[in-house]
Amino acid sequence: MSPPFTLIGTPYSTFTRTIALGLQYKGLKYDQTPTTPHADLAKSYHPFGYLPTLVIHEIGGKKVDDILLRESHAIVRFIDRIAPEPSLHISAGDGGVAIEEKMWEVVSLLAFLGFPTVEYGVVKPRVQALDDGHPSDTEVRVQIKEGVEKLRRYLEVIESLIAPEGYAYGSKLSWADFFLYPLLADLRMVPEWAEIASPRIKAWIGEMDKLPAVEATKPGTLSAGARP
Ligand SMILES: N[C@@H](CCC(=O)N[C@@H](CS)C(=O)NCC(=O)O)C(=O)O
To answer: Is residue 99 part of a domain?
Structure first.
């Protein structure tokens, strides 16, 4: 029997991995169709060729005409509705926050600013240079200097918004962790990680690494040595 969902997107894509982490964590069965952004396949699922799209074949055991759900926030809402447990939400007090919506504040900062700051500012140019053998290490450091500083400040802000230990909200795993993990797992693969990642961020990623969902979604990612 084929699974009720198909996740469209290369495992290398950070947003795709966020959704894969959620599906895995909640025990939802899915196939994954790898594609890079803006490839014909991606465009056939997403009106702007972005990743991911979740193709819904079945809801609650009932077959439906395939529904294409795009945009990670919409997909997360769907996943939460059909599989509320185990919850990836927080409650007031978790990680010291006053209200539960603080998790969505961080998710939004990660989704809208995290990708350009981590990936375009640092990881992609650095990986390209490592793969091509040029520009040299010295040259690439100059090229991404501004991006590295921006990322350092960005991560300081994120760190100021999360709990001092454990997951982003202490003992409560949440969507914030699943939006942050793919970005920082990529960052860990480049030399800038050692300069930028604070002890808190390193401890956080160490906790995340222990999750079976993290292990299950690793193949095909930069941290597994893959390329898109
Ligand atoms: N708003 C989208 C953003 C998704 C996104 O940026 N995905 C990346 C891959 S990880 C992408 O498709 N990028 C293509 C581009 O930036 O042109 C969402 O939340 O799903």
So the answer is: yes
pLDDT in tens, 51-63: 999 999 999 999 9
Q: Confidence class of residue 197 from pLDDT cuts 50, 70 and 90?
A: very high
Residue 72 beta carbon below 6 angstroms from any ligand 1 atom: yes
The residue whose CA is least distant from atom 13 of ligand 1 is 50
Is the beta carbon of 45 within 6 A of some atom in ligand 1? no
Q: Tell how far the Cα of 41 is from the centroid of ligand 1, in angstroms.
A: 15
CATH number of the domain that 78 lies in? 3.40.30.10
Give the relative orientation of helices 137-161 and 102-109 as an angle to the nearest 10 degrees.
Answer: 170
| pLDDT bracket for residue 1 (50, 70, 90) | confident
- Longest Cα pair distance anywhere in the chain, in angstroms? 57
pLDDT tens digit sequence for 102-149: 999 999 999 999 999 999 999 999 999 999 999 999 999 999 999 999
On whether both 70 and 159 belong to a single domain, the answer is no
Q: Ligand 1 within 6 A of 19 CB?
A: no
What is the whole-number distance in angstroms between the Cα of residue 18 and the centre of ligand 1?
12
Q: For the purposes of burial, counting CB atoms within 10 Å of the CB of 65, is it exposed (0-12), middle (13-18) or buried (19 or more)?
A: exposed
Three-class SS of residue 191? coil
